[in-house]
């Protein structure tokens, strides 16, 4: 295995709320894992986003941050509290949405799998939601210029959902390729009994693409029925591919069924770039109290290292990713957990335990 | 209590698939309950819809059926299998959607409560989803003429979501009034961090209307977080008000968490008309095998009788509704259940047991 000795550079966008705690925690965990496997030290590139960026640059997502991201292929985005930004920044695409759209990070990969030591409603669940990340019912990102949401009168608001064949094709390929390395089953989630043209196009293109993967079994489900199936027989699903909004809802649902949204990792990626981002929000109510659970972002960072490993054919990054996963699952299995899981560990204590475990093995 | 001796007339639309079994089952149950409480016999008005209507009238929802509904204020709609209709009827608003829109049945009321004798993931759940039923992301019903879905090119499909202040106001009043007779808590579900204008309008109007109900506590939640909350702490919610598509997804989810989608009743109503309709579909895979669970439609019919009772200030119809609920819950508590719940009863046996229980008490 060729080990590329070039220093890996990773952007670090702290964001808001608990971002100030969980982003440094994820960073320390990556550093520990890289050192444990003898990989070169990561060069972190800190970039402002959110309240800090408003204070420094008058914008939650300054042009300087976007320009710097342009020169990177991998970064970690902390949660942002866009609903709380001053009025002039509201009604705009959120920082996360802007970055996804700008860098065409079309695939949002969200695994949901139970952890030993964490109570799960669906302990047998082991699935991955592959969420289309650039269009669909997320009208705020649907227009080439401006937003697909508008108000023709003060009493009427409209949102234009868009589904394109191209976006369906590429997300379908992502899903089928992923399934080939897993249990070879893809479930396409749509709502074609009601939205026959948009979600019907999504479903039909996915089924078409699926024909190119004869080793993968393909099923289709309506989104409402799918929510019920996930509760009743979540273990039956392997890879679930769906449009942006359905993916948002079903991934929070699956994450919670598998244990907790606080554990739900996610990677946003294109062929050439990837962004680690937890599936949860900024939780301003518990921010600054050393209570936040950094697990989701640590596991998202591991997904980022896997992606970098594949892209650079640099196996050592994948070993570091494995170390993070082992460190996190071992810590949880040992009963060390933050308050949201009923545990007693602070964010700092949990992070330290994970780090020690990573270095010990 | 004034007992209106006028014969109640109720439309009966059998629909497709298991409709042929569960609609007659619901009908028999209503007949038993009316007789048990000494109410006048229902005059049932059978109207074709679905495959039968295609065969007889060349249309899944013939004008003659719509005209007849015009003369009624209450009816029972069986499930329809619109996805299976011949090509020329696909891409059209479904029969159920057409009826909801045509008669402006703006409120879709969907209770989710666990039943003794039925395993539930969320045994403490007791909530009601109040789903806006005429607009929102259901683009197929958003245009005054035609559909809000269209394809500008063969590779691009668009769907126009619409939220109007008027529709938000009336569904909010429905929710707050309902909450006043319950635990006085309303949760408004939106996605305003992404769809700030449309779902933001929905949220803001609901909060405005809520100010007129100072005895009712109001909270707001993002739809993705709400899916997770329902899993983690479903018992905390009382009345949940949301737009059409979110209501569709969250009601299937809640129904399953409370036991099974096969038990999930629903009423579609305006001030002047109401339609009982189960929250589940036509299940063509088990149709004609005497296996379907008629519970959801029986309980939907009980909701219809309650609605008629209130509208006509005719208490006896409410007593009949109570009898149906007691008959159904007693039967399930006694361990008599259809195969979907792991029981041994056929549709006919289950219906007979419910009927006997209703007449016995
Ligand atoms: C806040 C964020 C993690 C969330 C998500 O990706 O689920 C949101 O951006 C969205 O897309 O609805
Ligand atoms: C099939 C039917 C029961 C379903 C529903 O009301 O949930 C559908 O009509 C919808 O609106 O998505």
Automatic annotation (TrEMBL), chains A, B:
Pfam families: Iso_dh. It comes from the Bacteria. Keywords: Manganese, Oxidoreductase. The keyword GTP-binding does not apply. The keyword Zinc does not apply. PANTHER family: DECARBOXYLATING DEHYDROGENASES-ISOCITRATE, ISOPROPYLMALATE, TARTRATE, ISOCITRATE DEHYDROGENASE [NAD] SUBUNIT ALPHA, MITOCHONDRIAL. This is Isocitrate/isopropylmalate dehydrogenase family protein. It comes from Rhodococcus kronopolitis.
